[in-house]
Amino acid sequence: MSSIFLKIFIIVAFLSFILFFINFGKGLISKRDRNLWKDLKRRLIGLILCFAGGGVFLLITYSDLWSGESWGFFLRLFIFQIPSIVVALIGVLFALTGLSKAQEKEEWKTHAETLIKTLNDDEEDINARRNAVLSLGKIKNETVVKILIEKLSDNDTTIRRNAIESLGKIGSIKAVEPLMKVLKDKDKFIQWGAIRALGKIGDERAVEVLNNTLNDERESIRKAAELALKKIKAKKTNDNIAGVSDQPKSSP
Fold first, then answer.
1. How far apart, in whole angstroms, are the C-alpha atoms of residue 124 and residue 175?
2. How crowded is residue 30: how many other Cβ atoms within 10 Å of its Cβ?
3. With left for phi above 0 and alpha for psi between -120 and 50, is residue 98 left, alpha or beta?
4. What would the mean pLDDT of 62-87 be, rounded to a whole number?
5. Which of 48, 54, 41 is nearest to 9 (CA)?
6. Of 84, 90, 100, 234, which residue is most buried, by most CB within 10 angstroms?
7. What is the rounded average pLDDT for all residues in the chain?
8. What gap in Å lies between CA 106 and CA 125, rounded to an integer?
9. CA dist list (Å): 78 to 2, 50, 62, 75, 201
């Protein structure tokens, strides 16, 4: 039993270490992503419990403690070995699962409220507001989409650019018409970003305005429009294929 537990313990510990350092790397990249850091904290607690429980089990199993006593076996089993296995299993659960979906959803809700508050506070540091717009792009929520659409007319150019990028990531069709209007903006990068976002969303309503940009004198705008049109066409083809496969087969 102890040898089997030892093998399982080593495998689980190795997997837990990998997951821990993957999330640690993500946390270093996304320093403002509180979910990742809370997930990382949960996994770290799991690793500690896993090693503590496993260590106690192996220490008691391979030691001579109470080996000469008639009640030693039961004491070792019920007081140390079984509890240590339970602790290790709880640690494995924490280390491998991280945040639950319910916790993650609640965390994102709180995170979104904080970001929106930061974004709407004109006295807040401008860089914090710009980063808040980008972070909102990770949250697929109608309230977030509405806020980002409003920021397409913000006085700060970077906030407008970031809002466009975030809307493209979210992919809501509610952003299509506002993004089409943004194509009239004088800023080249805002136009380019809006074209890319429309391509990611893949709504056919954008085809006409994108076709009009194919004759633009700027090569970057023309290439972005070509790519966006290809993405919209590909999405339409995939949707048609999916629609056909979902249709019930007629009886012979």
1. 26
2. 14
3. left
4. 65
5. 54
6. 84
7. 77
8. 26
9. 15, 18, 16, 6, 59
